[in-house]
Structures are given as structure tokens and as C-alpha cells.
Write a structure and sequence with these properties.
heterodimer; A: about 120 residues; mainly beta; 7-stranded mixed sheet; 11 strands; about 0% helix; B: about 110 residues; 6-stranded mixed sheet; 5-stranded antiparallel sheet
């Protein structure tokens, strides 16, 4: 396994369009996280899954955002009616949670630019 | 709400120097702490994880410690090299702020040859 992958790596879209990002985690990992990162800041938590269940969502995740992990493997993050403020790097991470100890492994990110 | 501060925000040192990066949490109830490295425009690479039963971790020229009583962590880099130039982020995971990591803003390190 080569690690966490994300697709696409870059996305340019016009305001009001919908976009969807995909994340493929490390295969044996049971947790998958989505983060958003803007320039000069650390990643901000958006949501996470344990297997196929979405267990927590940040207040940052407005109703225009939806995430799925249908079979407990890959995940998608969709943003509807994009706004210029959605421009950021969207990072996915996966981990294997065991006895409250986990190391998160990050993908390369999808950089979104909303014009 | 957990907030994380990293000091300094940026650091420039000549090659070969030893250096210390600092990270502090407003809520000291942390049971896992992870240090990451991020190169420009890239994702994060895990460097060290300090679990709840540990106080420090070492990997090569890197040493990270965690003082849970104060909610502070340090990352020590020995004999710095130009290849160490990157942004270093700390992230804490605790019981009081949900099942997710809270990240600091990072320290941007430049090691000059």
C-alpha cells in the first residue's frame, strides 16, 4: 500500500458549481478524517468516519458540505454551490485507532480554487 | 475550546544548529500528541507520536516531549540540515474536544546552507 491518495490534486471551479473530492485511505485503517487548511494555518477538522459511520462533524461543515464513506473504504467530500470562501486545501487522513493511540497519515491534499 | 499556539511562527538558522520548536495547548487534557512536517503545497508527514503513557519520543535527530501538567510540547532538532526546511505542526488529541486532532498554526523553519 502506497499510503493515502486523494483525487483530484487541483480543482478550479466557478462560484455556484458543485465539486466532489475523493480520498482512498490506507487499506487496513478504520478511521478517515477530512480537514481544511488555508494559507498559513494548521488544518481544521471537518468530519471523521469510523468504518462507514460518520461520527462527528465540525461546525465548519455547513449544509453545503456532505461526506460519505459508503463501504468503509474510500470517502467522498462534496461541496455544493461553492463560494469563494471555500478556496482552501482539503486534506484527508486515515488511521487505525487502537487503545486510544493513533497516528494519522495524510494524503497530498486537493487544492480548491473558487473563482 | 482547545486552542494551540506554536512559537516561534518562523525561524531561520544556519546549517548545523540545534533548535527547539514550542507548542502549547489551552486545555492540557491531552492524551496523544503528534508532530508533523509539511512541505510547501504538500500534505503532512507524521514525525513523532507521543501516546498517553509516554513523555517523549525520539527518531533520529528529532526528539519530542510532552508536559501534560502544563499542556506544552517541544520538538528538538539536532544538527539541522537544509533538508529540514519545512513547516512543523503539532496536533493534540484529547477527551475534552471531540474525537479529532486540533492543530497549531505551525512553525516555518528555514535552514540555511
Amino acid at each position: 500500500d502506497t499510503g493515502v491518495s486523494q483525487d483530484p490534486r487541483h480543482k478550479i471551479t466557478k462560484r455556484g458549481q458543485n465539486v466532489t473530492f475523493r480520498c482512498d485511505p490506507i487499506s487496513e485503517h478504520n478511521r478517515l478524517y477530512w480537514y481544511r487548511q488555508t494559507l498559513g494555518q494548521g488544518p481544521e477538522f471537518l468530519t471523521y468516519f469510523q468504518n462507514e459511520a460518520q461520527l462527528e462533524k465540525s461546525r465548519l461543515l455547513s449544509d453545503r458540505f456532505s461526506a460519505e464513506r459508503p463501504k468503509g473504504s474510500f470517502s467522498t467530500l462534496e461541496i455544493q454551490r461553492t463560494e469563494q470562501g471555500d478556496s482552501a486545501m482539503y486534506l484527508c487522513a486515515s488511521s487505525f485507532m487502537s487503545l486510544r493511540a493513533e497516528t494519522q497519515y495524510f494524503g497530498p491534499g486537493t487544492r480548491l480554487l473558487v473563482l | 475550546k482547545q486552542e494551540v499556539t506554536q512559537i516561534p511562527a518562523a525561524l531561520s538558522v544556519p546549517e548545523g544548529e540545534n533548535l527547539v520548536l514550542n507548542c502549547s495547548f489551552t486545555d492540557s487534557a491531552i492524551y496523544n500528541l503528534q508532530w508533523f512536517r509539511q512541505d510547501p503545497g504538500k500534505g503532512l508527514t507524521s514525525l513523532l507520536l507521543i501516546q498517553s503513557s509516554q513523555r517523549e519520543q525520539t527518531s533520529g535527530r528529532l526528539n519530542a516531549s510532552l508536559d501534560k501538567s502544563s499542556g506544552r510540547s517541544t520538538l528538538y532538532i539536532a544538527a539541522s540540515q537544509p533538508g529540514d526546511s519545512a513547516t512543523y505542526l503539532c496536533a493534540g488529541f484529547g477527551d475534552n474536544y471531540g474525537q479529532n486532532f486540533v492543530f497549531g498554526p505551525g512553525t516555518r523553519l528555514s535552514v540555511l546552507p
